[in-house]
Design brief:
By secondary structure, this protein is of the alpha/beta class. The chain has one domain: TIM Barrel. It has 10 helices and 8 strands. The protein has an 8-stranded parallel barrel, surrounded by 8 helices. Helix 7 links the parallel strand 6 and strand 7. The longest helix is centred in the middle third of the chain and has 18 residues. The model has no long low-confidence stretch (mean pLDDT 96). Bound molecules: SN-glycerol-1-phosphate. The site of SN-glycerol-1-phosphate has 15 residues, from strand 8 and helix 9.
């Protein structure tokens, strides 16, 4: 049986991967399970569960509810080592490379690694870069780090290459959930022409046109969370999936 990473890499080789992010704080586990099933039926390839801050304490319950509602892989997108839950297939093992806070470069990893092993989760080594989006995002505040400038692709390129040389498998450029402005196409184009890793992009992507533009710029994995959580719009989900997968 292939791993979740092999599945992502396979899909990314043939086109682009659509991931839908659900936050345990934004809806009940039952409602998130319903959204996950909608997303799967609309064509999402992977369901991410996570957020930068969890006040509700519902992460375990949410992962379990989402897991039983879909057959596609369920992957945790953790804000810290406290957000891990049995029942998911994999976890993005994130290094916040845009920042210089040792806690998010190694500290949380040491806390999380034994729990990931115990829970039987597949860790997916991911270089995570926050990108300026016009306002302070939750991740920026909670991680106490500065994002990469959005208009300096060379800085982003050097960070992405460092991620590749450190052995990471995915490089994720994130403007933060609900960002006013998504990561610029120019930045994604520059980075994806420079590194061999699949480039993942998320934060503030609201329309199928935006999604398509980013995929055409080289993104191989595209994430939306907020727009689906807010609208629960099945038609929009289908259009997003189709835009990412290259349909009309
Ligand atoms: C946030 O990239 C994800 O980390 C998703 O962002 O919620 O704005 O779609 P949105």
């Amino acid at each position: 049986m292939s791993t979740v990473l092999e599945r992502i890499e396979g899909l990314a080789r043939d086109g682009a991967v659509y991931m839908v992010l659900l936050d345990p704080d934004h809806a009940t586990p039952t409602e998130n399970a319903r959204l996950a099933a909608l997303a799967e039926a609309a064509g999402a390839d992977i369901i991410l569960v996570g957020g930068s801050l969890t006040l509700s304490g519902r992460s375990t319950e949410t992962v379990a509810a989402v897991r039983s509602a879909v057959s596609r892989p369920v992957v945790i997108f953790p804000g810290n080592a406290g957000f891990l839950a049995e029942g998911a297939d994999a976890v993005l093992f994130l290094s916040l490379l845009s920042g210089r806070n040792p806690r998010f470069l190694i500290g949380e990893h040491v806390l999380a690694a034994p729990a990931i092993r115990r829970m039987g989760l597949e860790p997916i080594p991911t270089g995570y870069m926050l990108v300026e989006s016009g306002a302070t995002t939750s991740v920026e505040f909670m991680s106490d780090t500065r994002p990469l400038p959005r208009d300096k692709p060379d800085i982003a390129m050097a960070h992405a290459l460092a991620a590749q040389y450190l052995g990471m498998k995915i490089v994720f450029f994130d403007a933060g959930s609900g960002a006013r402005a998504h990561v610029p196409e120019e930045l994604i184009e520059a980075v994806s022409g420079y590194v061999d890793l699949p480039v993942m992009v998320g934060g503030g992507i609201r329309t199928p046109d935006e999604a398509r533009g980013l995929v055409e710029s080289g993104a191989r994995i595209l994430v939306t969370g907020d727009v689906i959580e807010r609208t629960g719009d099945e038609g929009l989900l289908r259009e997003m999936a189709s835009a990412v997968h290259g349909g009309s």
